[in-house]
Amino acid sequence: MPDASLLTDDIRALIGGATPLDPVTVTLRAVRRSLEVYLGADEAERRAARLQPGDAVPGYVIEALSSESDTPEFPALLPNSILISNEWQFERPFRLGEQLNVAFRLLDIAERFGGKFGYSLDFRTETEFSDSTGATVARSGRSMMQYDAAVAGGDGEGGA
Amino acid sequence: MSPHFADLTAGDELPALELQPGLGQVIRYCALIWAFPPFFFDADAAHAVGMPGTIVPGPLKVGLIYRAVEEWLDGNGFVRHVRAAHRRPDRTARPITVAGRVARLYEEDGARRADLELAIINEDGQTSVRGFAVVELND
């Protein structure tokens, strides 16, 4: 465990601020590629062929939309990191052809003292998609843990 | 058959979804998000970081839970929220099962909603992911 908290004022100042990313469009290509990942090429082709502009599309497309822009790097305070959890939230389905504004936020950083991974830091982030009226359409969230594998006593459990 | 709010009861089980995410699916996922950590698709790279072999990306697994819920809904509603808490890695090309049950039924903001408890279970019967979802049913 470090002698002093790694959550300095400079690090804490990163919490809560929104970083605008490039706007994204829900394209048929993004929908089809997302469907191919989760449902396979044949089902993706079948579903994509039926879609018309303005149609609701499956939430899988959030992964394609989230990767349109590089998100700001986490400060690397400890040498190892692992995914703890991730989530998708939808206020309504995405619609084919709509353009969305995107913002990235570091929601929180929490310290853990002790436990399987020793001293560790949990970073909770969110990518938010909003429509032209400013209404939130969806959020993609992720919690990552930074830790030091050299001092952790894990038993193989944990994220991926 | 689509689930209908009036017919559901807390404790009702979702049909188990049996999957076997292979390297092809993992590589498609890496291409979708344009990120290529080698241990997801290169066994030697996985061994070099202490893994027994290539693993299914954790972020991909929230979509597998989403798929199980979407297939259960069968068009009668939409998935408002899906969450995956990762407990252990899943090896690629190994069978997994997405299981779930209805935890709570309620009306909120004029909508009929259900909370679902879900899990991804590996071939050894271990839970690799604990999941949670909220769905909004049309009727």
Q: What features would you highlight for this structure?
A:
heterodimer, A: 160 residues, alpha+beta, Thiol Ester Dehydrase, Chain A, 5-stranded antiparallel beta sheet, two-stranded antiparallel sheet, 4 helices, 7 strands, 20% helix, 38% strand, B: 139 residues, 3 helices, 24% helix, elongated
Provide the CATH superfamily of chain B. Answer: Hotdog Thioesterase
Structure classification of chain B: alpha+beta
Distance between the termini of chain A: 24 Å
Biggest sheet statistics of chain A: 5 strands, antiparallel
Number of strand elements of chain B: 5
Principal-axes geometry of chain B comes out as: elongated
**CATH second-level architecture of chain B:** Roll
In total, the number of strands of chain A is 7
Structure notes:
The complex is a heterodimer of chains A (160) and B (139). Chain A is α+β, with helices and mostly antiparallel strands and 160 residues long. Chain A has a domain of 93 residues: Hotdog Thioesterase (Thiol Ester Dehydrase, Chain A). In chain A, 20% of the residues lie in helices and 38% in strands. Chain A has a 5-stranded antiparallel beta sheet with strand order 1-5-6-7-3. In chain A, helix 2 packs antiparallel against helix 3. The longest helix of chain A has 12 residues. Chain A starts with 8 loop residues before the first helix and ends in a 13-residue tail after the last strand. In chain A, 32% of the residues are buried. The model of chain A has no long low-confidence stretch (mean pLDDT 90). Chain B has 139 residues and is of the alpha+beta class. Chain B has a single domain, classed as Hotdog Thioesterase (Thiol Ester Dehydrase, Chain A, Roll), CATH 3.10.129. The radius of gyration of chain B is 17 Å and the shape is elongated. The interface between A and B is medium-sized, with 31 and 34 residues. Strand 3 of chain A pairs antiparallel with strand 2 of chain B, so a sheet runs across the interface.
